[in-house]
Each structure stands twice: as C-alpha cells, then as structure tokens.
## 1
Amino acid sequence: MKPSVIGRRGFFAKAAGLLGATRALSAPAGSAVRQERLTSGIHSSGRFEDTMIFERKPFTWPGGKSVAVWVVPNVEIWSFDSAVDAAIAPTGAAGPDVINYGTREYGLRVGLWRIADVLDSAGIKGTVALNSGVCETYPKAVDEMKKRGWEFMGHGVTNSRTLSSLSLDAETLVIHSCLQTIEKATGKKVNGWLSPGQAQTVNTLDILGQAGVLYTGDWNNDDQPARINVKTGNLYALPYCLIINDTNLYSAWSFTGEQYYQSIVDQFDTLVEDSRKQPRVMGLPIHPFLVGQPEHIKYFQRAIQHIKASDRAWLATGSEIIDAYRKVHA
C-alpha cells in the first residue's frame, strides 16, 4: 500500500476547497459573473486528438506482442554548487551540497554499471535520457553505453536547470545545443526527448517538432503513443509511466525495495490484462543513483525478470516503439 502523499490537514483543506467550488458551480442563475470566472480558465492543451482508448482500432506490436516496454535510465549531471530537487535533505551549511552531489555522482561512477549488467544479462537495450553535459564531463560513460547499442534521447544540458523559465530564443538554443552535442558524441540522430524535471514551456513541443524530434516522454496522459499537434514535424507522446519512477517510489514515498518491485510488477501485470483489448506501452524510468544502489539493484533485476518471462512483452527502445506505431497508423 502506498503511503499517503498529503497529510490529514492537507487532505481536509483540499476537500474544503473542492466543496467550495462545487457550491459555487451550483449557485443560482443570478451569479453568472461568478460562473464565468470559475470556468473561463478551463481549457485543454489543444495538442492532442480527443480520443478515448476504448474507441480506437486495436493493433499488435511486432511479433504479436501486446505490451511494449522501454527501460529509461536517466543519466544526468548536476552543477557542483547547485543541487536541485534534492534526494536527501541538505545540511543547510554554506557551500556546495556535497551530500546530494556525491550521491548522484555515485550513480555515474558505480550505479549505472550495475544497471548495465542487469540489462546486458536480459538482452535489453536501454533508452538513455541523457543530459548533454555528460558527453563533455564523463565521455567514458557515453562510450560504454554506445558499446551496448543503447539509444540516447535529449534530456537538456544539465538537471540543475529546467526549461520552464526560458524565453523562446533561450529554450531553442538549449534544445538544439543538447541535441547537437549528443549527436556528435554518439554519431546518431537523436529521436527522443525528456525535459529536465519534465518541465516544459508553451513553446517546447513546437521547438522539438521543428528540430526533428519524433517522441517525448514528458506527457503521461495515455497508455499508447499519441500524436502531438505541432507547427512543424511529426511528434508523439510516448508513455513514460512517471507513477513508477524510482524517484517517486524511493525518494518521495520512501518505498522499500520489495514495494518498488511489487509496484513495477503490478503496473506490468495490469497492462498485460488491459492489452487483451488494446495494446499498451510501459515505460520504466530509473536513476542510477537510486536503482543502482547495492540494496536496490536486486529488486530491479527481479522486476526485469518478471517482465522478460511474459510472452506478451516486447522490450524495445523508444525509437523502435514509435517506428512500429507509425507503420500501423500511417
């Protein structure tokens, strides 16, 4: 059972707010101005077709599989003097946040290679969400991942900075710089994107489309790939499954290794059952500084073994999933 994300006080405060909104919406016709204020800001993103999963035409993934699974190691770099979204409460002392910086650097130096061993043993290629700063600071790590045939998608320059506060010109520069750096380091075109912190601006999707990016894991609004309306290009949302992100399970919710394993298994097993009607996609987001810890790695390995044992699973990269989807929906 997942721990509560909000306390009792927060729950009742939220409930009171919802009750107040409900009463306002049921007010007499004379309160037209109030009604307008309540509803005027409600609108969709306008980026997706209004379609429910039950009304779509079924299809199958390659090999007759029904659940496409992509494993997403987040390989990130942080500024030494600026730890963002701390996994451990910092000491509060002046100077660098050594606790969090060191923990994350452990992921690159050690944890990532435990994960690589697990994926190698299972014959799985990861789809790396890569801060382009890693290419310049830890080139050996990029070379080792290249040797394994892993795919690389853009993940900004560093996780110390998100896109959310950038102007159009600044964001365009960051995205193009990230893509170009990774392509130069890997020798391959970058097809995918995951924003640092999954934080976007209103311009992000159009910039990605213009840059030739084919898919993004930022949107978690479906169990299938979904075409995104952009000014130019062909861009899709690929389910990343943020709900089973290890930063949620281990850091935010303080799950044990056994609870982490069970969450992955429950997610997969439910999608397998659902795929009797419609094929699904499952992302498995992981961070080397969490899953790659000695006490955690065996639970990740057990989860991978459970998925591999299913005859319904197609373990693929992000690009392979999007390519297969586009062929069916051409």
## 2
Amino acid sequence: KMKRFIVLVMLVIPVHALSPNILLSNLIDQTCKQTPFYELCVASLQANPESTNADVKGLAYIMVGTINTKATDTLNVIDKLLGETTERTRGRQALTVCAELYDIIIEQDVKQAIEAIDKGDYKYAEQGTYDAAIEANSCEEEFGRNKSPLTDMNTLVHDVSIVAASIVKIIMRG
C-alpha cells in the first residue's frame, strides 16, 4: 500500500506543479461567482496578465484598474463628441456633465479605492467603487428621454464598478 501511495503522490505533484492556471482559474471562478456580472468579471480578470499570480486583494486592484481604463476610454469618447459639436444643445450639455462625472471617477473614486485597498480600509474602497457606478448611471440619466451616445460605455463602467465593489466585499468578509 505504501508503494502505491508514493507512486500516486509522484504522479499528482508534477501535475499540480505544472498547472498554476488551473488554480488561478479556480480563484477567478470562485471570486467572480460572488459578483453579479460573472462573465464580465472573468473576462476582465483573465485579460490582465497580473491575475495569474494574484490573490483576491490583487484581483480587487485589477478590477479597480479596469474601472480606470473603461472610464478613461469613455472620457476620450466624450471629449471627441464634444469636439464635434459647438451648438448649445441638450445633448452637448449632457456630455459636458458626463465629462465632469468621468473626471470624478478617474481622479477621485479610483484613487480613493486604490488608496483604501492599500491601507486595508475596505469599506472606503467599496464606497469609491460604488460611487463610480453611481456616476456612470448619472451620466446616462443626463440625457433624459434623448438617446445617449454613451449607453454601452456607461453600462460597462457601472458593471465593472459593481464587480470591483463585490470583490472588495469578499475581502471584507474574508
């Protein structure tokens, strides 16, 4: 029986030594299952090579970084749209407010979340990520009944922010 056990151990150990991605996928999978947007969570984390060696705190940093990237992309589109029109319209006014909201996401909410994770103040980190989600929604609401040119981007920033908040909550519970 001992020989059989040793052979089994020798067969199992190399397999685990060679497959950290299986363990990684499991951490990402288990983490993302605890968020409301599983597919978005998995795709965002797996797109970042740093997720390979990350713990849950590292995954939170990656998601906050994703908020920053998506918010910056959205702000660039807003600036482009503002540059295309000089008329004082309801749509232009909405875009101007959205630019301010996205500045807040990038300059305040993301920075707050990162600094708070650094300090271990996860409640404050969670608040920063929730604030980003609220600001993305507020941008969308600025367009009222008019069609927003930013709906998809606002939704993405909102959802990524909620995923980040959910991951921070996992750390708080852990």
## 3
Amino acid sequence: MNEVLLLVGIVIMICILLGRFAENLPVPSLLIFIGLGMFFGVNGPIGIQFDDYSVSENICTICLIFIMFYGGFGTNISSARPVLGKSICLSTFGVLLTAGFTGTFIHFVLGLSWTESILIGSVIASTDAASVFNILRSQSLALKDNTASLLEVESGSNDPISYMLTLVLISVMTGEEISVPLMLFQQIFFGLAGGFLIGWIGILLLRHFNFEMEQGRTIFVFAIALTAYALPSLLGGNGYLSVYLCGILMGNYYIPDKKYLVHFFDTITGISQMIIFFLLGLLVTPAQLGPVLIPAILIMVFLTLAGRPISVLLILAPFRSSLRQIGVTAWSGLRGVASIVFSILVVLNDVPMKYNLFNLVFCIVLMSIAIQGTLLPWVSEKLQMIDLHGNVERTFNDYQETTGVNFIKIHVKERDRLAHCLLKDAFLPSGLLIVMILRDNDSIVPNGNTEILPNDLLVAAAPEFEDRRNLSLYENVIRPNHPWLNKPLWKISIPAGCLIVLILRDGVSIIPEGKDILREGDVIVTARF
C-alpha cells in the first residue's frame, strides 16, 4: 500500500510540474501525460505491469464525470446562444453521421462486419471536450463567428450520443435481449430529467441554505456532480448527459461564491485530465500496437479528411455557415478521453472483435491529439478564422468570476463626511464606483444626484489587487494575558511594515479604527508587507 501511495504522489507531482512546463510547448500538453504513463508502463524504463481494465474504467469514469460537469458549468450560454442550434445538431446528428460514415468505411476497407464496424465508428464518433478546451485556452485561440463557443458546446455535449450508440451495439453484439427503443428512451428521458431536476435542486439549496462549514458549498457541488451522474445511471438513464446538463444549469445561474467553485473544479478537472491520460499511457502495451497501427492510421485519415468534414458540411451548410467556419470546425474534431473510456467498456463486456479495440482507439486518439491538436492554430490562421481582438476566455463562465473587480461595503455613520452629501459631490478615491445603496430594505441604483444618508450601506466596486507576493495575512487571538487586551488600537505598538486590517468579533468582521478597543476573544488579522 505504501509503495502505491508513494508512486501516486510522485506521479501527481511530476504531472503538475510537467503541466507548467508544457504550457510553452507547441504540442498539446495532454500528450506529455500519455508519454509519462508509457514511460512508467510495461515497455518503459520503469516497467510497471498494469492491465486492469476494470479499475481503469472506474477511475476514468469518475474523472470524466467532473470533466463533463465542469464542461457544462463553464459553458457561457449567453455567448453560445447564436450558435446553439448548430452545436446541438453537431452533437446529435453529427455523431450519428460520423459513426455511420466511419463504420461504412471500416466495413468496406477493413472487411469487418457491419455491427463491428459501426461499433468502432460509434466509439470514436464524439469529439473530446477536455482536448478542445485545453487547446483553445492554452493557445488563447479566439475564433471568429462564435466558432469557439460552437466547438465548446459541441464537444461538451456529444459524448452522451456516442455512449448510447456504444451501449446499444454492445448489447446487440453480446446477444443481450433488450428493447432498443426502450433503452434509448430510458437513456434520454432519465438523463434529461435527472440533469434538470438535480441542477435546479442544487441551485435552490445553494441560494437559500446557510452553509456554516467553510467551503461547504464547494463540497456540496462536488456531491451534486456525483449524484447527477449516479442517480440517472441507476435508473437506466444517461449519466453523462445528466451531469453535463446539471453543470450547464448551475454554471449559468447565480450561485453565491461561484468563483471559489470555479477555482476548485478547474483544479479537479486539470488533475482528472492528467490522471486519465497518464493511466491510459500506463495501461497500453506499446509492443502490442503493431497489429492495429495500419488500421488505426487508415481510420484516422478517413475520419479527419472525409468522415468528420462531410458530416460537418451536411449539418452546417443549411445554417449558411461560411466554408472557413466549416473547415475549422471539421479540423477541430479531436478524439480523446471519452472514446478511450468507451473502448474500455467494450473490452470489459467481452465483445468479440477482430482487433483489440482499446489499442486501436488509443492509436487513433494519440494521432488525433498530436496532429489535429498541434495544427489547429495553424489551420485557423490559414483559414483566416482567428479573431485578433477576441478573448476566448469570454466564452467560458469562469471569465465572469475573474474580471479583476471586487465589491466592498461602506457603512455611513451620522458624523461621516459622506452623510447628507450628494454622490456627485462626495469625495471618493479614483477607481472607486458606488454601484448600489442599501437603505432600510430598499436597493437603490444611484446617480450623481442621489443623496447619501446616515445608516446607508454603500456597495462600491474597485479593481482587485492581484500581486500578493509581498503581502501576507496573519491571525492573532486576544487571550486573557495578551498585552493588547482592553487597549485602543492607537496605543498599540505595531512592528514596522505591519497593519491591522480586520477584527473578527463574535462572528462579525470589523474594519478597525484607532479608537477601537480590543476585547478578549477578538481575532486580529494583520497584514505584513
């Protein structure tokens, strides 16, 4: 057990350090983690023998839950609304067409049966949200005509269709007696119902329930993501569809302290991607890839140059999309995590196949990320689709939580200089804007002629200070024998470079003044510069 924990700790540390290094490389960083897994794997220098498909499938499924949830949570529906119809058509009919075209190619060129061919096409039919998001953000790739939003919604929402096709074909090929229409109905109905219901319940509870435990909201949303997948799955529904819809709902409605959720799930998603790609590199046996290499290359070439482009053209042409947008969208069909997870599912169900599907799909995904991912910025530039004045971060919800603006409150007292003063005459520092006045039980949006009254609570916006490298905060508790007990702040000798910035008293935060007297039990927050 200790050896396993040591290995896990070392691998995670290496992945995080390599992730930082890989940001400056021209290739997608996810390739680094696959390479690291192969380095530790059976044919690598470390030589770890790992071939447990069941454990791999469980770990990858858990990681994919959070990738799907955060994909929905981070999707800005307002930005995506102009291309929402295109995205939904691509993520549904596009997957069906791609699976059909690819399956037909495999049947006639590789000579496999129709069911086996369509199964392979279904497994690799969806585009990968993790890979697409990773490249768009790491390369700061802002695209014209809302194409970035189009790709984000499509790649985040097309896995459920691919998953349903895979399940149906697994059942057919293993001889399981099922009603395909009933199975599809359960997958869609419980997936949609579960996502909407759990998402709405989560929003209501987050808005109205007082989470006294620190980071309670974060842990609660973590649990919601797991529930949104597990509950519909138990009922025969599509857990991936449910968790994605749940993420969209929660990400596009007001939730208190959303920026902390963004930071948490951004980290979880990043680690999940590292774990999945490292694990896949560890699971694969490079010495066994020879028999599937030529078929993988043929499928990859067809999928990239014909299957995906034809599907995209048939769907986007009726929307009168430009050929440039169609070209970039077609090239952006990266394969990734979901395809490999679905291939492991096929292996675990002992589906009779000519090729080892995991090895075949692994090669396709590796080539897709390496070739399409690396060349996507170049293709976008050649097709003149790069928006030089755009910001791809604006297409994600978490951008709204990182605008560099903080809100502060100012309580106006009777003798304050602001009391009985018109807002336009008030002496306020440059860069400080009064955005709202809370008076009694009313909220007032002020203008220059608004009078500030005693007991008003002013809500002000100010730029956030981000460079905190030389600023540290420390807490001290005033105990019975503390030398500052019962003394006003102006009498206290504070070391140079320090400032008392906050007093926590009985759960209330007090901005200190020189006349404030420190009491027993006060928590003093001191800034040290």
